[in-house]
Amino acid sequence: MLSCENHSFIKERNKSLQDSISLFIEKANNYEIPKSKALEHLVKAESLVNSLPKDSLYFKNKIYVGFIYFNLGIKDKYKTISFELINDAIEAKDSFYLARSYSYIGDYYTDKVVLDSAVIYYQNAEKVYFGIKDNIGIGRMHVKMATAKFRARDYLGSEKSAVMALTYIRLANNKLLEYEANTSLGLACVETKDYEKADEYFQKAYKIAREENLENLGQYQSKAISLNNLGFLNLKSGKYKEALNYFNQANQDSNLKIEFPELYATILDNKAKAKLKLGDFSGLPGDFFEPLKIRKNFNLTPEIVNSNINLSEYYQAKGIPDSAKYYAQAAYDLARKTNILNLRLTSVQQLSKVDPENESTLSKEQINLTDSLLQAERQVSEKFARIAYETDEFKRQKERLSAQNQNIIVFSLLGFLLIILLYVVKDQRSRNYQFKLKEAQQRANEEIFALMLSQQKMMDESVQKEKQRIGQELHDGVLGRLFGARLNLDSANRRDDEKGFEIRNHYINELKYIEQAALLQGWACMPDSAAPPPRTLLQKPCGASGAPSTCGTTRTTCRCPDTQECVGGICKVGAAPAAGSIIYVLLDMSSS
């Protein structure tokens, strides 16, 4: 409950802060109030933004604050905020806003005409965009690098960057960036005097401007810009009538002067120059002075120098040398205050034309500036090439690392699968080995069982043979003696004297011996586990085996009609205990 309440409180607090920030930013962005008042609102907005957590809302608000500082002309503060954004994005691990922050620093250095530093920061932003695979961001950075390289007179580098921009932009189908890239390519081709390709790229840009509503994408007066570029191309290539026609078309929008006074000044100045080249002085020099006034209001130094040079050319054509020299000198003095070598070279060239007295000195300066410009262009080109090489090397390293990571993953998976395969093979072999052991053990058990059956069979055969032998012995020996004893007892029963008693006593003892022998013979033919001791057998009655008996335990109830045949049959089947019982019966019979 407390956690939910805290979350709700933080959410409400951030919403309240955002409302306050939006209010102060809106007031600071109001161009109708004094700059000091706008700055006061902007400082309050910045203070509130710094109290926000480092999330997307914080970055968006801080970017707005930086842009307003830039629009108010406090560009160093804009630079400071951009560097703070870089540190905050690194701390928050936010690649998107890190790339944008690098881009803002590049814009700052482009505005300050420190173009090598601008390209370096654009390059850093491009690396980050490349890391997060943002094709639009990569294309936008290449467009900005193309513009910066063009201003640094690295036209080949500018063309290369614009081509790279188109490569990535077409993947994302962004018409605004495609328009800007074609425009940059056209301008680079104009400076390298490849007018045919320049016309091709300018026509592509103009087609996009006509067919697409680029105003919704943040690009205003795109048709006027394209027409001005086409006019500039024809002006450079000596087609002054075509150039004048394009400039007239570009200047048809009545809102152009109000919405984009710098563009209006450029178009008007180019139009006046085309008329000058055609020898048409109508509207001149007013069409030169109006752009000069606008450019001075916006403090556009390079454009002011160009306006002075155009005025000098006009007065030179009109045959007014003093005015021609005056404006040429003004252009020369202003150009020397800048580090733009090509601007200084252009002003020196015009001054040497209208100031023949100092022509030798100016010619030497012109030569020195030309050499310096060539050297500077070479250095800039080498620096940009080195930056491009480092970027390409970074990309190659990233691709190599990516390939290495993929290889590591693939080889790890293959190794893991190989280990699993080896384990499965080993386990299968172990199972097969155990199965073979069990199979061998089974076969051994079967062989042992077969051997035991064979031995049992042999033992059964031996026992059977032994039974037959004992039966044969009982039949031939014991029964013979019994038969003799029976006959003698029959003869002795007829005598009642003492002699008869002795004879009967003798044959009774003889029967005891025969009984003992029969018991021993019968016990020998039985298995060890089933044969009871002879003494026990002597004590058991005739029916002790559990089978029904027809004879009792006393001599008066015993009835055995044929003693010899009874004993002989029992011994033949191995029933020795029954033989003993029969003998016991015979003993009872003899006692009678």
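The record above closes out task 2.4. Task 2.5 opens with a second protein, given below.
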Amino acid sequence: MLQCPHCNKALYLPGENILVEACECGTIVTISPDTKQAVAATGPIRELVPEGYHYLKPGTTGSWKRKKFALSGRLLAESAHGAFSYWTAVFENGDTTILSEGYGHYSMLRKLETEDYPGWIQVNRSDAGATIYLNGNRPYRLVRKSVYDQLSVEGAICMPEPQLPFHTAELFSEEDGYLEIIYYKDNLSALFELEFLEPDGFKFEHTATTPFEVSFPCIQCHTTLTSITVPYTRNIVCSSCRAQYTYNYFEQRFEALKEDRFKDNHSLPYLLPGMTGSLNKIPFTVAGCCIKEETSGDYPSWTEYTLFNPVEGFSYLSEYKGHWVYVKEWPRPPLITEKGKDYIVENDNHFDLYNAYRYRVTAAWGAHIYNLHHTRQTYVREFVYPPQTLIEETSGWEECWFYGEHINPAEVKKAFRMTTPPPARYGTGSVQPLMIVDLAGVIKMGVAAIVLLLVLHMVSAMSKQSKSILFTTFNFEDSVKQTYTSNKFHLNKHLSNIELKLRAPDLSDSWVEVSGTLVNTDKGLSFHFSRTLSFYSGIEEGERWSEGSTEGSELLTDIPEGNYYIEFEGVSDSKRPMNEVSIQTLYDVPVHRNLNAVILIVCITGVVHVLISNYNKNKRWNA
């Protein structure tokens, strides 16, 4: 039986690989993996205050890869840039692993047995985004490097005795996924493969039910200030008097800032800290709000709201000129399949670079998870594929990616049960849904549609009879007017057509008109037709010209089955009589004019879409 070396109380080890445990007396006890002896830790770590839970806590149960586990404790690592929890998960067979959690991101760490990874000195000399080689010179991108200067332990953990400095490095490869290196102390370190899951993927039970918050009075106006995002909070601003506070994570309390005060020249934002609402069926509390401004150009500014949910973590609402975007951080970089100077392709979606800038905060209210006065070193790039956006924020120590979608102002009003209208909308938003088409895509779709129409038309034409049922000739040598009534004939299709093809080969500087009636003897139906042929030619200023044609046709459609005859009448030009006109009557012929009309409509539709798309693009990019 192990005992605490300070109070001699018995220690219960929930798993085989437990290396550190916090005793109830406040002593941090380390257990030798070889001798199983318990000694007091010598490093500058403390016992974590046990009530600081948002969602997970010791005793929370879950499952991973169909194996049940329980959380026995955690190591909380904190720095000026943020905080992260490393929970120890103990499975039913006694095995242990690490579950990392922070900002709404959850991942299970699986240790990789290899020594082929970079030391901290090499990582620390590299900026986020640099290429790091490991596992046989396989390239990885350095996503984040962290230096934590405050460590807290509660319960029992499977990590070695944490000592300062405590470093981590996160690497990403689109082929191999996400890796994390934890540098415990000196040369002791370990490489882990990360598997990210949504919280419901772990099927957590016995989670924290009481909301955790920290409250204190404003020393300037005595308003009670509350932060629901500790230990992630780094600044809090009084919404009444604008007094600012920073979170001292060493002493776990808020301290007033005497400098770096914001100018009180902004009206209150649309949403205030403490308001609650629901977006995408997720309940949120507005933790804070700030106004950001670009540091170059014409200094455009926008309003950003920080939303917090104990399970889902942090999301953001960004409002610019009345246009709203809902944004959430991705736990990993996007899977980019193609990349250019001003675009990226992710999941077959082409995102264009819309804006690149650095920013500063000019006003703030409520709690914030970053230092409001240290933002100018962050470089932001916004890529848009309306109504979606990908946002990349990079600094020397981390590379963060956010995914955003356009959201209608009316949805924001409804989500937070506001009685006042949201800010008026001006211009075109960066991801406002507009009809935008890809020219290459339009051409491909147009060509595919035309090919399909041609195939269908060919199949239809093959089923046509194209049967000649009459051949009539009018001779105008003796008279300029001729008539003729045909014999009866039978049409055997339920519904089809008749085409009359006219030909007057000796027509010259004259005209001839053929008209008539197709008569159905069964039902008394009649179908009238008329066609005029004219042809004129001559020489003018040494050039020959011509007008008209000696051939033509007339189409009768929707002709039902039955017995028919045709009454013809022909009239020629009395001033210039002609010899003859021949009329061939065909039944059930392919109709090409419909095909031409549809192809024309397809082409016009494509052109109109491209014109509207270009207009909308110009509106968006000139906004």
